[in-house]
């Protein structure tokens, strides 16, 4: 039975479960313990601390895992990174007390840097020819400078609020991470087929994200121009209306450009514009 290891609690748990639900794999949340079977898909879900997921996948206890790329890079296990999943985005950065007159990475020479990511940090220091002392701490890294444990920190940043409240500033963005689907290097052909089906569904889910279905009435004379504004997947659907000289047009639009497109469509006479959510797109 193919197993997927996901974080049992924490920042990636909810979105990992949601990702599985989104691709039609119903994970039984209520009875969640350590291991749970999926009813409608040949998969078992194993709930772990995120630190343990790369190792569990590397040794084959689970064929698949969802974990932050940062954990994969830090642990250094040999696993396949199958897909970036587009959630859990963050970066690991060097941050220093805000009073420091910082001129560049060479400032870190001879300094002590506190981090939970010593391996990623070692790689960065080596690449930049910096000799610094790494102090490994597993939690509350951001208090290390104030506590006198280190001169600087190397830690996960998403909004930067934690840094500011500890009197620190981010000076080097070193590693960019997001949740990834990882796989054991030697999964069986049978498990590979299950993974392929999951990937097909994940691609569709990722493709559907941030897209809206848009329909409107349009003067027939504006169809060509509207097609240029809304190129759609192949081309938009255009249907004549009972009223002469008018048609209805249906298309798909990226949410980010929605209002800009609506303004352009209104300018060429579009009326009765409807924007709907899309559940799935199979390109
Ligand atoms: P666990 O108990 O499973 O070991 P944890 O405390 O190590 O959990 P979380 O804080 O839940 O880990 O973070 C899990 C992952 O979420 C991180 O490794 C990282 O990839 C991602 N992440 C995204 N944004 C952030 C953030 N602002 N802070 C920390 N992690 C983040
Ligand atoms: Mg952890």
What's this, in brief?
27% of the residues lie in helices and 32% in strands. With 283 residues, it is of the alpha/beta class.
How does this model look, in words?
The chain is of the alpha/beta class and 283 residues long. It contains 8 helices and 15 strands. The protein starts with a strand and ends in a 6-residue tail after the last strand. The structure holds adenosine-5'-triphosphate and magnesium ion.
Structural class: alpha/beta
* Rg, Å, rounded: 25 Å
Bound molecules: adenosine-5'-triphosphate, magnesium ion
Q: What helical percentage do the residues reach? A: 25-40%
**Order of secondary-structure elements:** EHEEHEHEEEHEEHEEHEHEEHE
Contiguous runs where pLDDT drops below 50 for at least 5 residues:
none
Average pLDDT, rounded to a whole number, is 94
Number of helices: 8
Walk across the major sheet and give the strand order.
2-3-1-4-11-5
Q: Which of globular, elongated, flat, extended, rod-shaped describes the shape?
A: flat
- Quote the distance from N terminus to C terminus: 30 Å
Strand portion, in percent? 25-35%
Task: Report the count of strand segments.
Answer: 15
Major pleated sheet = 6 strands, mixed
Supply database-style keywords.
15 strands, 8 helices, 6-stranded mixed beta sheet, alpha/beta, binds magnesium ion, 283 residues, binds adenosine-5'-triphosphate, 5-stranded mixed beta sheet
């Amino acid at each position: 039975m193919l197993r997927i290891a996901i974080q049992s609690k924490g920042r990636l748990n909810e979105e990992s479960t949601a990702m599985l639900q989104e691709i039609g794999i119903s994970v039984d949340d209520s009875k969640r313990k350590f291991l749970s079977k999926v009813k409608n898909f040949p998969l078992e879900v194993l709930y772990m601390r995120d630190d343990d997921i790369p190792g569990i996948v590397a040794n084959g206890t689970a064929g698949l895992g969802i974990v932050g790329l940062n954990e994969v890079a830090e642990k250094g296990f040999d696993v396949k990174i199958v897909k970036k999943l587009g959630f859990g985005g963050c970066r690991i950065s060097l941050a220093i007390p805000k009073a420091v007159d910082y001129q560049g990475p060479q400032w870190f020479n001879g300094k002590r840097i506190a981090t939970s990511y010593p391996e990623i940090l070692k790689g960065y220091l080596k690449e930049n020819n910096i000799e610094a002392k790494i102090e490994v701490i597993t939690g509350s890294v951001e208090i290390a400078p104030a506590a006198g444990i280190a001169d600087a920190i190397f830690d996960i940043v998403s909004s930067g609020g934690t840094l500011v409240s500890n009197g620190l500033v981010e000076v080097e963005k070193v590693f960019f991470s997001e949740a990834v689907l990882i796989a054991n290097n030697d999964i069986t052909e049978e498990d590979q087929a299950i993974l392929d089906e999951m990937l097909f569904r994940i691609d569709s889910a990722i493709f559907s994200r941030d897209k809206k279905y848009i329909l409107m009435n349009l003067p027939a004379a504006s169809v060509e121009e509207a097609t240029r504004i809304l190129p759609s997947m192949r081309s938009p659907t255009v249907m004549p209306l009972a009223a002469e000289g008018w048609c209805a047009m249906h298309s798909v639009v990226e949410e980010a450009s929605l209002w800009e497109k609506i303004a352009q469509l209104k300018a060429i006479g579009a009326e009765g514009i409807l924007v709907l959510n899309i559940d799935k797109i199979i390109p």
